[in-house]
Amino acid sequence: MTVKESYEYAKASYSNWGISADDVLEKLKRVPISIHCWQGDDIVGFEVNRNALSGGIDVTGNYPGKATTPDELRSDLEKALSLIPGQHRVSLHSIYAETDGEVVERDQLKPKHFEKWVSWAKKNGLGLDFNPTLFSHAKADDGFTLSHPDSEIRNFWIRHCRASRQIAEYFGKKLGTPALTNIWIPDGYKDIPSDRLTPRQRLKDSLDKIFAVEIDEAYNLDAIESKLFGIGSESYVVGSHEFYFGYALKNNKLCLLDTGHFHPTEAVSDKISSMLLHSGQLALHVSRSVRWDSDHVVTLDDELREIAHEIVRNDALDKVMIGLDFFDASINRVAAWVIGTRNMLKALLYALLMPVKQLKALQEEGNFTKRLAVLEEFKTYPFGAVWDYYCEIMGVPVRESWLDDINAYEKDVLSLRS
Predict the structure, then answer these.
(1) Does 385 reside within a domain?
(2) Is 225 a catalytic residue?
């Protein structure tokens, strides 16, 4: 049976429930995933005065072929994008600036240092998102940035975040799609603090100063990312979920949920509907934690599917900005992008092919038996045939055949890098 024939069979199965597979695929085409550039080089970046990783971030593994130049990283991204269906975005950190060998401090970064990224994005039909880098720097060595007790250090990071928003505004103007600027900080204490309030007061004041410079949301959207704990901040993180969600609501900013930043018994999927009731938009960094916030490559697991269900069943595909955030140096880095992004898209497709209206009605009627039965039966509906057809019509390899492209790229490109 051909891919098209399998699709026609699947299409008929879903149509029995009033689900148009053709319409579903058209919807999926319009969903961009923001793919994080830092998977390709282990979050090293291209600063001339490069610093070692810090801020509770760790990348393990030494698989050959890591990108060591901007051109190599863009080449690797192009290869990954050629194997992923749809039109997507790329998320940059400020450490990926190109300064032509000149030492430029982070608070002095300008749009000109990202001109090559913008030209590349325009050529490839991509949107760009941005992240100020508040880690791996001498002024963050003690684990504090925007909540630092030293006002000079705080002001440095305030200037850096302001510069980052201006860079993102430049992205939005040049590419015709607003950039998401996401602020994450590592600030926190390893042991139990004697004062939780004062650092949070300083963080609030810093954010107020950053956002005092107004930027048109047609070009830039601001997000703030919470965390429960990290390496070196096991007992207290200044930027907690409660702090940032409250700040976001009060100041009309997006709250960004990273799926690895909560207690292992918490599920981000359970938070989405509650937060959407109070906030017009949310942002996600989809990752996979194994015992801790370890940023493993995204797999098609239960939580990923449930996140997709919550986005789709709440008609929030245009309200939730989906980005990825993982870094694995133990496997082929380009393959990691492909696996993770295709899995995110598979989860969304799976959710789009569910009989949402009928399941909601069954719940409201109290017919929990039928609801559970339908949910379970749909797990073996021919979703895979629809995915295969989507890949085929989007001009990317079907099923695991994309590995042939990765193997060839590794042989011809990655293996030649020193």
Answers:
(1) no
(2) yes
Question: What letter does residue 355 receive in the DSSP assignment?
Answer: -
Of 76, 107, 129, 325, which residue is the catalytic one? Answer: 325
In a domain, 286, yes or no: yes
- Tell me the C-alpha distance between 1 and 274, whole Å: 44
Please tell me which residue in 227, 253, 271, 346 is annotated as part of the active site: 227
- The answer to whether 325 is a known catalytic residue is yes
- Here the CATH number for the domain that contains residue 329 is 3.20.20.150
Residue 241 · residue 226 · CB < 8 Å: yes
In the set 42, 76, 258, 310, the catalytic residue is 258
Q: Which one of the listed residues 41, 47, 222, 293 is annotated catalytic?
A: 293
The answer to whether the beta carbons of residues 181 and 133 sit under 8 Å apart is no
Structural domains of the chain, count: 1
- Residue 272 above 80 pLDDT? yes
**What are the φ and ψ backbone dihedral angles of 397, each rounded to 5 degrees?**
-60, 145
pLDDT tens digits, one per residue of 153-192 = 999 999 999 999 999 999 999 999 999 999 999 999 999 9
Q: Please state the φ and ψ torsions of residue 90, each to the nearest 5 degrees.
A: -130, 135
153 neighbors 143 (Cβ within 8 angstroms): no
Tell me if residue 261 is catalytic.
yes
Mean of all residue pLDDT scores within the chain = 97
* pTM (2 d.p.): 0.97
Is 113 among the catalytic positions? no
The DSSP element (H or E) to which 116 belongs, if any, is helix 115-123
Residue 394 has pLDDT above 80, yes or no: yes
| 258 labelled catalytic | yes
The 3-state DSSP composition of the chain as helix, strand, coil percent (nearest 5) reads 50, 10, 40
Is there a catalytic annotation at residue 278?
no
Judged against a pLDDT cut of 80, whether residue 418 lies above it is answered with no
Whether 43 contacts 59, CB under 8 Å: yes
254 found inside a domain:
yes
pLDDT in tens, 351-371: 999 999 999 999 999 999 999
Can 370 be counted among the known catalytic residues? no
CA dihedral 185, 186, 187, 190 (to 10 degrees): 170
